[in-house]
Every structure is written in C-alpha cells, then in structure tokens.
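Re: beginner question about structure tokens

> Can someone show what the tokenized structure looks like for a real chain? I only ever see the sequence side.

Sure, here's an example I had lying around. Input first:
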Amino acid sequence: MMHPNFTQIRRQYVLDTTEHYAIDTFPGGWQSTAYRVMILGTLLDLYDAWDPEDLKTLPTLTRLKQTIASLGLTGSRLIDDFVRRLVQTGHVSLDRFEMDGRVRILRPSDSTLAWYGKTAASYYSILDYLYPGFGYSVASSDNSSFMKHQRISASGIFEIIVRFLAKNVDLYPFHSMNGGGIALMHLAVSREGVKNQDEDERYSIFCSAGTVSQGRISATFCSQPKRATSCRDLASMAKSLN
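And the corresponding structure tokens:
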C-alpha cells in the first residue's frame, strides 16, 4: 500500500475486495469479520497441508481451535458457530477419516476453494499491476495448483497479521464489526479527491455505500446517540490508510 501508484488502483482493490467478502459471496452467507476470515483461511491451510500418515496434522475441529487459540484472535464458541454455519451451507463438510472412524475431517467444498482462488487472484492482480514482470500474473489467473501451495505456506503469515491488528488498537472495533474491514476501505476511498468537504458530508457518503448502517458505526464509537452524524473519529482513522 506504500507503492506510489497504489492510489491509482485503490478503488479497484476496494471494489474487488467488497465483491468477494459481500454477504452473498463470503462462504457461510454471513458478513465477514477479521476472525471469520482467519478461521476460514486457517481451515483451508490445515486441509491442504495435512499428511494422512501423520495424525497430528489432521484438519480436525480440535486442531483448528488449537491453531486459532495460539493466535489469540477469537474464542472456541465463535469458531464452533462459524464452522457449524459453513457445514450448514455446504461450504465445509465433516468427513469420516478412513484410518479412524471416530475422527472427522474438515473438508472445504469445491465452491469454497473456488471462492478462495478468485479472492486471492484479485489480490495478485493488484500486485501484477504495481510490479509488472515479477511473475504475479501466474497467481492472478487463479491457478489452482499455485493457490494450493500458496495456502500451505500462508499459515506462517497469520501471526504477523495478528500482531499488526494488535498494534492498531484504534481500528480494532472495525475488525470485530460485521463488514468492518470493508467499511474502512470505503471510508478511505470516500476521502480521495475530495477537498473542502466537511466531516458530516464525508460520513454520509461513507454510509451510503451500504456496507454497514450508520447506527452500527455510531454505536461502536459513540456513547451518545446525538453524535450519530459525526465522523471525526472515523475520518482520523481513515488517514492511516492513505
């Protein structure tokens, strides 16, 4: 995001991300949150990396919880709720492990893998635009073989992501909010190219995106309802994204 040309493609980045994390696209049919994205990403990584000969690597619900717990991002109950939802919607199945019928494997569906491929490819397409000739075009074409290896190696980055979230405490309410990450990006985009625009007007533009309601945002930051039309806090947070 520090690339000098990123501002030229920021809007496309936000549009692509909004599309892939919208409630009718995100696996499970629930709104995305940082912890749900982390759970889903970890589940996919564990599934791709498991060795049938090594029982310690099996992608079970218990191992998923243990992995997430080490990151300290969410609790066991929220993991249970989201995994249950993924199973209900057919995005994940609980399959009997052939070598031990008591064990259930968390297996992502083809549609979930396809969602991941398209989502990751959209990120790599941005990198391909910013750094042409560095080989990102292979990933931006939704190469299933590449995506599998990418998921296997991606687990090492989760701890870095969690540390980043922990350092940016002012943004934490957005990470725990339904659609909060998308809301932040829309807020940042709404400020681009706008001069002499007061805070209330910027706030109205932001809310008109329809990502989350004005009341939801205000309830997160404001203890008094009469402050519901102010975006001073939100605007100051958006500066860190520009």
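Each token stands for a local structural state, so reading them left to right follows the chain. The longest strand covers residues 100-108.
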